[in-house]
């Protein structure tokens, strides 16, 4: 059993413990036959900026095995998949469907954790806890509205950071996604 976040050294330790060593093939068997084609060029390395507003880049990289390109793809996928999550949760809240609203917010929180969006995750968890409080009075309802707005601002910050990786604004990135 390995708990998240998974560390490379732990994975190798578990693999060494449970996997039996096999015979190593001779060197001739490991060499590819000579080819007249030129080998393909390796793609240029991809580097994320060290800091992105709203995103803890080192934490996101930890979840992605230090693979910067994988994190960049995960950020883009997150932004695309969760662009409407808060609007849907708000619609549930306004229709007095608290549990579906909470579930959408928690979905956002769990996804945010995987990419290093700590502030978004914490705000989403805080809002989700309020949404299922049985003793909703008018003060708490106003607090929930404020929390939705704070969560939306945190998501907008993250979306702007993600769009900057793709060389444009959030609106330009979403327009390009919608045209594809």
Tell me the overall shape.
globular
Tell me roughly what share of residues is in helical segments: 55-70%
Report, as a whole number of angstroms, the end-to-end distance: 41 Å
* SSE ordering: HHHHHHHHH
How would you name the oligomeric state of the polypeptide chains in this document?
A: single chain
Structural class: mainly alpha
Largest sheet: none
Radius of gyration, Cα only, in angstroms? 22 Å
**How many helices in DSSP terms?**
9
Protein described:
- By secondary structure, the chain is mainly alpha-helical.
- Helix content is 64%, strand content 0%.
- The protein is globular.
SSE diagram, text form:
Blueprint (H helix, E strand, L loop, with lengths): L7 H11 L8 H4 L26 H7 L4 H14 L3 H10 L3 H18 L2 H14 L6 H28 L4 H10 L1
Helix pairs in contact: 4-8, 5-6, 6-7, 7-8, 8-9
Features:
180 residues, mainly alpha, 9 helices
Short description:
The protein is mainly alpha-helical and 180 residues long. The chain has nine helices and no strands.
């Amino acid at each position: 059993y390995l708990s998240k976040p998974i560390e490379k050294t732990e994975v190798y330790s578990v693999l060494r413990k449970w996997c039996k060593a096999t015979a190593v093939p001779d060197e001739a068997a490991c060499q590819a036959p000579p080819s007249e084609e030129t080998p393909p060029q390796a793609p240029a390395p991809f580097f994320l900026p060290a800091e992105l507003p709203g995103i803890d880049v080192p934490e996101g990289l930890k979840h992605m095995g230090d693979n910067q390109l994988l994190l960049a793809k995960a950020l883009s996928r997150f932004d695309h998949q969760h662009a409407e999550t808060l609007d849907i949760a708000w619609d549930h809240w306004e229709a007095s469907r608290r549990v579906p609203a909470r579930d959408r917010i928690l979905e956002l929180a769990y996804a945010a954790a995987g990419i290093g969006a700590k502030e978004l995750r914490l705000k989403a968890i805080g809002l989700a806890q309020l949404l299922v409080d049985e003793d909703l009075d008018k003060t708490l309802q106003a607090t929930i509205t404020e929390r939705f707005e704070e969560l939306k601002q945190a998501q907008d910050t993250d979306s702007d950071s993600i769009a900057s990786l793709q060389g444009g604004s959030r609106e330009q990135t979403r327009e390009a996604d919608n045209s594809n």
